[in-house]
Amino acid sequence: MGSMLGNWPSFDPHNFSQLRPSNPSNPSKLAPATYRPTHSRTIPPPDQVITTETKNILIRNFYHHTEEKMRPKRAASENLIPEHGSKQPRPSPSH
Amino acid sequence: MFKSNNVAARIFERQIRTPAPGTSVHCARQFYENLVPSFTIYDVECPDHSFRKFTDDGQYLISFSRNHQDLIVYRPTWLSYSCKEEDCNGHEPPAKAKRFESFFHQLYCVSLAASNEFICKDFFLYMESNQFGIFATSTAQIQDAPLMGGAIPGVPSIEKITFHLLRLDDGVILDEMVFHNDYVILAYNMGVFLYDDLLAVVSLRYQTIHILQIRDSGNFVNVRAIGAFCQEDDELFLNSSSQFAGNHVDPVENYQSNSDSSFLSGIKQRLLSFIFRVTWSEESDKMQRVQNLKKKFYFHFQDYVDLMISKVQFLDRHHLLIKFGGVVDGGLSRTADHHPSFFAVYNMETTEIVAFYQNAADDLYHLFEQYCDHLHATSRNSLHMNFVSSHSNNIHAQDQLKCMKNKASNTSQFVKKMLSSLPFSCQSQSPSPYFDQSLFRFDEKLISAGDRHRQLTDHPIKFISRRRHILKFKIKSGPEFGSTDGRSKKISSFLFHPFLPLALSIQQTLFLQPPVVNIHFRR
Asked: Where, if anywhere, are coiled coils annotated (chain B) (predicted)?
């Protein structure tokens, strides 16, 4: 694309290719959009709706305390099993 | 923060500088350092009424007649007189100006109580949005009244308690809500709580929390009654079940008279099941679980069943903080060591208990320390109440609390003492900026934003500026030259106007002599 900067080497030739009206009241004047996100990790999901939490922080703390108390604890016997998970099955002596 | 202490310089500075974001109220309040009620008119001749308080918007002064039958409402104004001398500042105001009527203009006098009733002079709630006032009248207390309809023993009974809803603008009584043969603690609003348009009334005798809504049209509307039943249709459901089929007597009486043989009350069931589930979740091993339940739940089962609702407050429109005590003694549950009290958070919509703490719980104290403002549950309509100093929003108050905590020899006793102020009573603090701890330092034992009476002291109470550590003004209650009679006990109370530099100090002896009223204002 014919860039205003000529054919100078650039990191990404598409960087200044998008044009947007620089002034909403004057849509004919176009300028290159200068913000291009380098990744899409932080784009919000398309159906996201942001609302205010109705419970105030004190009440949230009360609920949180209760959730902590109600959370099922690990049984003592379970703690003896190591957490690695990926164990090789032992070959049986009969083989 | 202003650079200069001079009021004219501050005004010029205000013209050119915007305060930091979120601090506009604090910046405006700094002008109260310059405008202080330093002049006192002693022993003003005023009508012999008991003055209760200024409404939080400063529009009315509420007072009751000595015989506790009438309500008299005044409009606070300001004195006006002209001085034609050369040096007016040096002159005292003329004697004609030093009258009660210069500051207060009577709007109306309304009779609230019938002949055998009395207005509770320590009860007053104000709905700022509609300028409605709520007052209470009651007949005499009867000890040992016969128990009927689910009343619990040990609580006195009052034949008739009436809550009156008045439009303060013109004194028209809009509605009344009557409770018969019941007991509600009316003194200092302790048995009720007003949040926005919701009013919670704690009936100690029937162990029920009545939730009323006050409509804009000026009507009390019953929303729900929490106690025996939690959901609105619980009673219908129970009465339609086969156990009660064929009984044609009054369903409520029938249910409650059977209460010791059939079900526990709805709120008690919610509470016990919550305690069970929490105790159940504490252990994961099956054997230990049962042992834990036996030790912590079943051993204390009867104590939990015997718990009484003693005080309630709103946390928001759906959540209540309920205090349960072991013994209801004359209506006031005393937190003695052998009668521990408990706090529960109850969600009215889901009818679930959300949290449960003993009165010495450290995690509840932690929340009390950090979020005291949310515990005061100011309604959305009155923004100025958000600026009342507490240890959660003011560093000086926080320092004081930490000092007290470090000095306390027994932390568990300290925690119990602090938590005994919960649930808070509503509208018990004055929003006056003179009680703002960032502006002034004063002796909390002698005067504070709370509305309780204090012991009279002959020495003037000093208000010292925080920033400059100089005395700004003094409030002296009692006669100008000290009292000659040192023997009779005197109590003093202070009424500060919410935003004007105007305060009343009232000194009363306990022998029904007319009180001495001083007016403190900025001349």
From this structure: none
